[in-house]
């Protein structure tokens, strides 16, 4: 039984273009939507000290998105980031940051892949693959 999440092809293409346009630093942002669907993305600045190898979503963007969600806006269901020199697979470092239930969309090598963080997962010990339906 595999999980499926709806996301439009144009949204995936937008993320792939943004990742390709940033070869020297990881891009990152939030995934907004509801159960079983990603409706929108919210790009954020990567404020990590070493953005070539790490990502940290700008806390100001995170705070504003939480505030908007509380006011009836779209829910934050996960986030995305890129691996400029790697693949669209969670890294061991990603696994250390995984919080159960969140969607992780990974970009790398010209591909996009979606995962859900779990307590015990088949991928990097903390993730399960999720199919993207368009
Ligand atoms: Zn990563």
Task: Supply database-style keywords.
single chain, 134 residues, alpha/beta, Cytidine Deaminase, domain 2, seven-stranded mixed β-sheet, 3 helices, 7 strands, globular, binds zinc ion, MPN domain-containing protein, metal-binding, JAB_dom_prok, metalloexopeptidase activity, hydrolase
CATH fold-level label: Cytidine Deaminase, domain 2
How many structurally independent domains? 1
Q: Outline the biggest β-sheet.
A: 7 strands, mixed
CATH architecture: 3-Layer(aba) Sandwich
Mean pLDDT, to the nearest integer, reads: 95
- What portion of the residues fall into strands of 2 or more residues? 35-45%
For this structure, what is the CATH homologous superfamily? Answer: Cytidine Deaminase, domain 2
How many strands? 7
Radius of gyration: 14 Å
Heterogens: zinc ion
Describe the overall structure.
This protein is an alpha/beta fold and 134 residues long. The chain has a single domain (4-133), classed as 3-Layer(aba) Sandwich (Cytidine Deaminase, domain 2), CATH 3.40.140.10. The protein is 22% helix and 35% strand. The protein contains three helices and seven strands, in the order E-H-E-E-H-E-H-E-E-E. The chain has helices at 9-20, 59-70, 92-97; strands spanning 3-6, 28-34, 37-44, 75-82, 103-108, 111-117, 127-133. It has a seven-stranded mixed β-sheet. Strand 2 (28-34) and strand 3 (37-44) form a beta hairpin. The longest helix is centred in the N-terminal third of the chain and has 12 residues, at 9-20. The chain is globular and about 35 Å long. Zinc ion binds next to loops. Residues 81, 83, 91, 94 line the site of zinc ion (ZN).
């Amino acid at each position: 039984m595999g999980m499926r999440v709806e996301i439009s092809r144009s949204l995936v293409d937008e993320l792939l273009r943004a990742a390709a346009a940033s070869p020297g630093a990881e891009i990152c942002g939030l995934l907004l939507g509801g159960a079983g669907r990603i409706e929108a993305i919210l790009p954020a600045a990567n404020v990590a000290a070493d953005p070539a190898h790490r990502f940290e979503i700008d806390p100001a963007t995170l705070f504003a998105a939480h505030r908007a969600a509380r006011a009836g806006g779209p829910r934050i269901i996960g986030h995305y980031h890129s691996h400029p020199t790697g693949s669209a697979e969670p890294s061991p470092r990603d696994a250390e940051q995984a919080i159960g239930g969140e969607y992780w969309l990974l970009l790398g090598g010209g591909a996009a892949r979606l995962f859900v963080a779990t307590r015990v997962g088949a991928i990097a010990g903390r993730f399960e693959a999720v199919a993207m339906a368009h």
